[in-house]
Amino acid sequence: MHLEVEVERILPGGVGLAHAGGKTVFISLAAPGDRLRVRVDREQGNVLFASIEEIIAPSPLRIEPPCPYFGRCGGCDFQQLTYETQLAAKAEIIRDCLHRIARLENIPDFVVTPSPDDWRYRMRATWQIDREQRTVGYYERGSRRVCDVVDCAVLRPALQEKLEEVRATEWSQFPEELKHLDVVQGENGVSFAPAFDRFETSELSLTVRGEVYHFNAEAFFQINPSLLGPLIDFALADASGESVLDLYCGVGLFTLPLARRFKNVVGVEANAAAARYARKNLQRVGLANARVITATVTDWFRNDPVDPVDFVLLDPPRAGAESAVIKGILDLRPAAISYVSCEPATLARDLKKLIAGGYAIDSIAAFDLFPQTHHVETVVHLR
Ligand SMILES: C[S@@+](CC[C@H](N)C(=O)[O-])C[C@H]1O[C@@H](n2cnc3c(N)ncnc32)[C@H](O)[C@@H]1O
Fold first, then answer.
1. How far apart are CA 108 and CA 143, in angstroms?
2. Can you list the pairs that 294-300 forms with residues at least 24 positions away whose Cβ atoms lie under 8 Å?
3. FRET partner for 223 with CA separation of 20 to 30 A, picked from 15, 315, 342, 370?
4. What is the per-residue pLDDT for 228?
5. Is 305's pLDDT higher than 90?
6. Is the pTM value of this prediction over 0.85?
7. Would the CB of 297 count as within 6 Å of ligand 1?
8. Quick check: CB of 249 below 6 Å from ligand 1?
9. Is residue 96 helix, strand or coil?
10. Active-site residue set
11. For residue 306, is pLDDT > 90?
12. What tens digit of pLDDT does each residue of 322-361 get?
């Protein structure tokens, strides 16, 4: 089925919204104000999922996507928008989730801090590998086929160089079972997981706001280093006191600065490599007032008696915090909570529970850690 539509705005998930014949239409890779001829790919109840067949009249907010893989590669879905429009769309996505999912009426004003680099910013990536097709790159949009990428315009130059090195490697050197490669860049090189041929899981470091973090490609580290200072500043604000929990703490991005402000810090992290690095990062600078537990946050709340705390910082993955974690936090009743999130929809779902449990939103800030995609990092302070 084909339709002619006008795109009204960008919705959570990054799709354009239009209406036609009493139906709601979600269109991938659209710009607000576009007049489009679209093909309906899928229908679910009153919602049609569509892709662009022809741009009848482009929105003034639309630009020519500079990347030759755009549309096919599943990596970037905002390259068709000017950078200002991307930022405005992300603010609207956050507001939409807070309004529709968290049922918030009075949403505090906030800004989305732009990334200093809107291209060549990524210091971490996962490259998919298809031995049979001899392709290296990212999954194609909506598929498990690997889009063969020669040059990825959002990779930092050192990672782009490594992509070229991996691509130039003899296929006989690729281990049979190698399906994807995690890569991360630090100040002193690039680390790969799993290691193969000459690509090693080397230890790296990165300094943010004077703290040195060690990590490797087996542990989570944030994708965009240029906004980590402002992210930490806002997430911690003026927090200080006796005791704090840093849930989903990774290699300790927030744990180290928290350990300088609180007497007792407990970090919880499920990934053993990340938890090991968090301990090492604390130990190296003599921060003995923080301990890091290797466990899922749910298991930790279930199995360990948790002492009262003044402040909880949580930074879960896209799926958000498990119900048992929100309940665990509500049972603890910290005076303040800082929720760092990379997915506005699950953030809003969890905020709804925290607000029902007696907390109120104090302030919000967002950081564009992921230019050229619909993803955005949001921090919410609750009291
Ligand atoms: C968004 S990252 C944040 C890490 C850290 N706060 C940072 O900014 O670098 C989420 C972290 O949660 C960890 N994780 C995922 N699921 C978890 C769970 N159920 N319990 C504890 N940690 C988990 C991941 O390994 C990852 O390190």
1. 38
2. 294/269, 294/270, 295/268, 295/270, 296/270, 296/322, 297/247, 297/248, 297/268, 297/270, 297/321, 297/322, 297/325, 297/328, 298/322, 298/324, 298/325, 300/268
3. 15
4. 98
5. no
6. yes
7. yes
8. yes
9. helix
10. 342
11. no
12. 999 999 999 999 999 999 999 999 999 999 999 999 999 9
Q: Which of 223, 258, 269, 347 to mutate to test the pocket of ligand 1 (most atoms within 8 A of CB)?
A: 269
The token pair that represents 275 in the structure block: 């938890």
Tokens of 49: 């999922």
pLDDT, one tens digit per residue, over 230-252 is 999 999 999 999 999 999 999 99
* pLDDT value of position 194: 98
Q: What is the pLDDT of residue 15?
A: 98
Angle at 301 between CA 295 and CA 303, to 5 degrees: 75
Q: Is 253 in the pocket of ligand 1 (CB under 6 A)?
A: yes
Contact 15, 142 (CB under 8 A): no
Atom 12, ligand 1: which residue's CA is nearest?
248
* Structure confidence by residue, pLDDT tens digits, 132-154: 999 999 999 999 999 999 999 99
pLDDT at 304 over 90: no
Q: Is 278 in the pocket of ligand 1 (CB under 6 A)?
A: no
Q: What confidence tens digit (pLDDT) does each residue in 13-44 have? A: 999 999 999 999 999 999 999 999 999 999 99
**Contact in structure between 315 and 254 (CB atoms under 8 Å):** yes
CB 114 within 8 A of CB 87: yes
Taking alpha carbons only, the member of 98, 100, 96, 150 closest to residue 127 is: 150
In 146-170, which positions are buried (b, 16+ CB within 10 angstroms) versus exposed (e)?
bbbbeebbbbbeebbebbeebeeee
Instruction: Compute the distance between CA of residue 197 and CA of residue 216 in angstroms, rounded to an integer.
Output: 17
C-alpha distance from residue 157 to each of 73, 164, 190, 195, 208 (Å): 19, 11, 11, 21, 20
